[in-house]
Design a protein that fits this description.
about 375 residues, 10-stranded mixed beta sheet, single chain, Spore Coat Polysaccharide Biosynthesis Protein SpsA, Chain A, about 45% helix
């Protein structure tokens, strides 16, 4: 790499005193040094500010900005992108971290594939078991490492796809990142688009912000790259109260919760599929009818057919969801359900198999873990 572009690692945080130091320390310890580590504090009320300021004294690349009042995740993300000085932008969750060679290896992929939309990482999921110690759960890494624009658009919204998870934390050109996040925030705030008030509020907390902004700019490129040379580490908590502030609470534990999740997700994607990606819209529309029933059936079986699953389901909400579907689309959707069910099953088996196969190939030191699973920088 002849020229060393500035890369911004951007972090938004709210009340992250118990975990923010890990994210910052792994950013500081990157093998690639031409970095801006930009942290936007959304008016935290704990010791987050003191911790960040202490780390910023040790490394001048750490730039701390604090909101005067809490403005929510989506607006904070937009402000973060506007403040970023780097040519490239890497989003980092306040409770997550990056493998040691992440930025250098991702930039190498950009050099090798200058027409890629972004470089997406392998996702490693760890379980927080307390005392700064973590257990490996599994990793996400599709077999297909060069994903065409067409394949991405056809698969981005599918439940079994890991593409939204991976591309949310990819390395982007900063201008693309800013363009996408501006579009998302403007679209969800617009009075010209029919969006439920609850979805607008959920968006401010982060719902549908990260997972679909690549969809806004992917049309400019032919493909994007997924690499196994870098890993993005996400944490699953044993205690719900440790979750970061942008957790949405739309968990799949009831028929009503699943219906609401699919309804809001469909609306979030729908605008782009009705405008920029019209030729994919019919399949997208039918998929969201089939997959609602498939997911509900899978979760119902998973919880051992407990009757409480349907307690909160409202007929009016279901009617609102299916409004606009023709009888023909209903028939196609129901015929498609067995296919979706089998695909979900095979996808799950394949993902677990590949994850277990990779479990021992990940270098613990690259993931900032010692042999006993303790987080360790340096």
């Amino acid at each position: 790499m002849v020229n060393k572009p500035l890369v911004t690692i951007g972090i938004t945080v709210f009340n992250g005193a118990s975990y923010i130091s890990r994210a910052i320390e792994t950013a500081i310890d990157q093998t690639y040094q031409q970095l801006e580590i930009l942290i936007l504090d959304d008016a935290s009320q704990d010791d987050t500010e003191a911790i960040i300021k202490r780390l910023s004294l040790k490394d001048l690349r750490v730039n701390y900005v604090r909101n005067n009042e809490n403005i929510g995740y989506a607006r904070s993300l937009q402000k973060l992108a506007e403040l970023a000085k780097g040519e490239y932008m890497q989003l980092l969750g306040a409770d997550d971290w990056l493998s040691k060679n992440y930025i250098r290896a991702a930039l190498d992929e950009f050099d090798a594939h200058p027409n890629t939309a972004c470089v997406a990482p392998e996702m490693v999921l760890l379980k927080d078991i307390g005392d700064n110690r973590f257990d490996f759960i599994h990793s996400f890494l599709p077999k297909k490492r060069l994903v065409t624009t067409s394949d991405y658009i056809k698969n981005i919204y599918k439940t079994a796809s890991v593409l939204p998870t991976l591309t949310a934390y990819a390395l982007f050109r900063k201008n693309d990142f800013l363009q996408s996040i501006n579009f998302m925030n403007n679209a969800f705030a617009s009075s010209d688009i029919e969006i439920p008030i609850e979805l607008r509020e959920l968006h401010l907390k982060g719902f549908a912000t990260e997972t679909i902004f690549l969809l806004r700019i992917i049309y400019k490129y032919d493909y994007f790259i997924i690499t196994d040379k870098v890993a993005y580490v996400k944490i699953e908590y044993t205690s719900q109260d440790k979750k970061p502030y942008n957790s949405k609470g739309l968990d799949w534990v009831s028929a009503d919760g699943i219906l609401r999740w699919f309804y809001f997700t469909r609306i979030a994607y729908e605008y782009l599929f009705k405008t920029d990606y019209k030729k994919y819209y019919k399949k997208f529309h039918i998929y969201f009818l089939s997959e609602l029933f498939v997911t509900s059936a899978i979760v119902f079986i998973k919880i051992k057919q407990k009757r409480y699953f349907f307690n909160d389901l409202k007929g009016s909400e279901f009617k609102k969801y299916i409004k606009g579907y023709s009888m023909f689309e209903f028939v196609i959707a129901f015929l498609y359900m067995p296919v979706l069910f089998l695909r979900r099953l095979f996808s799950f088996i394949d993902r677990i198999s590949e994850s277990n196969g990779r479990k021992n190939t990940m270098s613990r030191s690259d993931l900032f873990l010692d042999n006993d699973g303790f987080f360790n920088v340096g």
